[in-house]
């Protein structure tokens, strides 16, 4: 008689459901709707949602490419209620494994926002360039920063 143990299955199911509460998928739009970007975005997950001031936040972008990518950079621009408030540039290979092979890959960017960051609605624009400065992708999405901070429990 074959016996199926439900406890590991139940624990896995609970883990997945709890994880989904902390990583919420968000709507993404391409910067130029008429451009056929080499990198196609499948989705963006933000964890936690809303982002908490003074605590780590992770933005995970699931994407796919038809060509391998040996290197490049990511340019991130953040706006607060339409006002540009922050820009930064990262080496692509610091945010994903390089070389990026043909097919699916994930860009994961983690950052701790300062505790003085104002709560509210933000927009993030991310542009990916290859090592020859060719624009491979440009997306934007909205996210919220909550009132909680690292000092909220004090």
Rg from Cα: 18 Å
Structure classification: mainly beta
**Which runs of at least 5 residues are low in confidence (pLDDT < 50)?**
1-24, 150-154
Helical coverage, percent range = 10-25%
Distance between the termini: 56 Å
Describe it:
- By secondary structure, the chain is mainly beta.
- It has one domain (25-145): Immunoglobulin-like (Sandwich).
- It contains two helices and nine strands.
- The strands form two sheets. Strands 2-9-8-5-6 form a five-stranded antiparallel sheet. Strands 1-3-4-7 form a four-stranded antiparallel sheet.
- The longest helix has 17 residues, at 6-22.
- The termini are far apart.
- Residues 1-24 and 150-154 have low confidence and may be disordered.
Compose a concise summary of this entry.
With 154 residues, the chain is mainly beta.
Write the SSE topology.
Layout: H1 6-22, E1 24-26, E2 29-30, E3 39-47, E4 56-65, E5 72-80, E6 83-91, H2 92-95, E7 103-112, E8 120-130, E9 135-145
Antiparallel strand pairs: 1-3, 2-9, 3-4, 4-7, 5-6, 5-8, 8-9
């Amino acid at each position: 008689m074959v016996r199926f143990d439900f406890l590991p299955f139940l624990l896995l199911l609970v883990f997945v459901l709890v994880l989904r509460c902390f990583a919420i998928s968000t709507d993404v739009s391409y910067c130029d709707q008429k451009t056929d970007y080499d990198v196609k975005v499948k989705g963006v997950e933000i964890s936690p949602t809303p982002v908490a001031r003074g605590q780590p936040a992770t933005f995970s972008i699931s994407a796919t490419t038809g060509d391998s990518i040996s290197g490049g950079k990511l340019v991130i621009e953040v706006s607060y209620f339409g006002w540009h408030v922050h820009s930064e540039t990262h080496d692509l290979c610091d945010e994903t494994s390089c070389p990026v092979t043909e097919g699916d890959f994930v860009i994961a960017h983690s950052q701790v926002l300062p505790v003085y960051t104002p709560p509210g609605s933000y927009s993030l624009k991310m542009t990916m360039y290859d090592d020859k400065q060719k624009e491979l992708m440009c997306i934007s999405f909205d996210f919220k920063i909550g009132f909680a901070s690292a000092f909220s429990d004090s």
